[in-house]
Design a protein that fits this description.
Length: about 120
């Protein structure tokens, strides 16, 4: 599959996701039924030609291939933040043990700071 086909596939998937989100938005009152006395929403008036061309440009802008994956990476990080930070701390301790053994006051760090960090970052 060529990079262009992959990008088109991602764009199609993104558009399907957006369509699903838009279709799930309710058009009802708080009771869950449409109020018959309320008129149906009317279509907006046709924009001027200069406004229309700028709207067309905005509609044609789709997220790029890289921005789509960047959003996925950021989403993954925030959903697994605690585990990722623990792994980074372990890797840092493995790479440079004297940092925690002498420089960070292990008595205070191990008892108070670690507990505060764990409770502060957990939800």
């Amino acid at each position: 599959m060529s990079p262009q086909e992959k990008q088109q596939d991602v764009e199609v998937t993104y558009q399907q996701h957006q369509d699903k989100i838009m279709s799930e938005q309710p058009n009802t009152t708080t009771a869950g039924t449409r109020n018959p006395s309320t008129p149906a929403p009317s279509a907006p008036s046709e924009p001027k030609s200069s406004e229309k061309s700028s709207q067309d440009n905005d509609d044609n802008e789709k997220p790029s291939f890289l921005s789509y994956y960047w959003q996925r990476i950021v989403s993954f990080y925030w959903s697994n933040e605690f585990l990722i930070l623990i792994i980074l701390a372990i890797l840092l301790a493995r790479a440079y043990p004297p940092l925690g053994a002498t420089y960070l006051a292990p008595d205070i760090t191990a008892t108070w700071m670690a507990v505060i960090f764990i409770f502060g970052t957990s939800q």
